[in-house]
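tool_log.txt
---
The assistant was asked to compare two proteins side by side. It first ran the structure predictor on the initial sequence, then on the second. Raw inputs and outputs are pasted verbatim so the downstream comparison step can read them without reformatting.
(1)
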Amino acid sequence: MALSFLATVEDLFRRLSLGMPRIDATGIVRLRVDALAVNLSDDGRGACRIEGRIGTLPAAGPARAAAVRAILRATPGFLLANEAGVFLRSEGARGEALVAFSSHPLAQNAPERLIGRIEDVLTLVEFHAHALTDTGAPARAQRAAREEIEDAVIFRL
């Protein structure tokens, strides 16, 4: 039997010993892990949306090109073992935000998979934070930003 979004999130918070979740007026539950945050929400189609805002892309120019290049170079490596992806969301006058996203079917009733998908989103948020300037990235992500990826890696299955 499929659980409702609220029952799923309550079960998650109970398993993580976080107390009762707080749902804001927009239907979002915010979950913080260290300096990182994800939003959990009901997508209205039987799934829990898991999103983490990474930051705003720089305006057009060399900084934007460098950020997009870094994101495109790194993202394919996550496709083999990560159930989350990244996309751009327009924020009007603020520009475009890079967002990490995953979805968890409520019918699955598998709390460990939900936790795994949340971890996948957090991994992308932390990893890609260095490519953007306004994320307030934690120190370990800032250190990773200084370590440039030099070689492309091709995975074959």
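(2)
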Amino acid sequence: MRKVISMNDDLQLKVLPRLRTAFYGQNASAAEYRDSFVVCETIARYEEDAALLMSDRITESERTEKNITKTLNFRADCYLKLTSLADQLAISPAEACRRILYYTAEYAPKTSSKEFTPHELSQLKAKILMLEESVKALGKALLLTQNALSETKTEITRLEGDVSYDI
């Protein structure tokens, strides 16, 4: 479901990239993980009390002038959760969304170069499986090639044995 949300530059240029990096690692790009995906993931991961979104620190961030509108695609479950939180706090879903983003960015775990996110680990495991399958396929191909080579040598030996040289 598509919704238009007004945001300020801080959300667009600092908060969303920070969340993208925290969730998906240092190499996560905006092309791979669109803002809509990051927003939905942030909402889905938010499990705290709704009242925490009304902290003074977030309210200060929220007071800045909104100067961009952003069309986001929400998953149905995320939008339902967002509207539920907004109803609890008596604020608009757009404001609830911005507050969740600010809150999560402030408290999101920072990833270091030695830590891997669950997404990165699943990608690495998938690569390992693919490489193991490639090694098995190469092993079979090598065995077939060795068998063919052995058969060819045997055939050459047989043919050489059949040839008689008359001198």
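---
observation on (2): The helical segments are 9-24, 35-45, 56-62, 76-89, 93-107, 118-162. The first strand starts at residue 2 and ends at 7.
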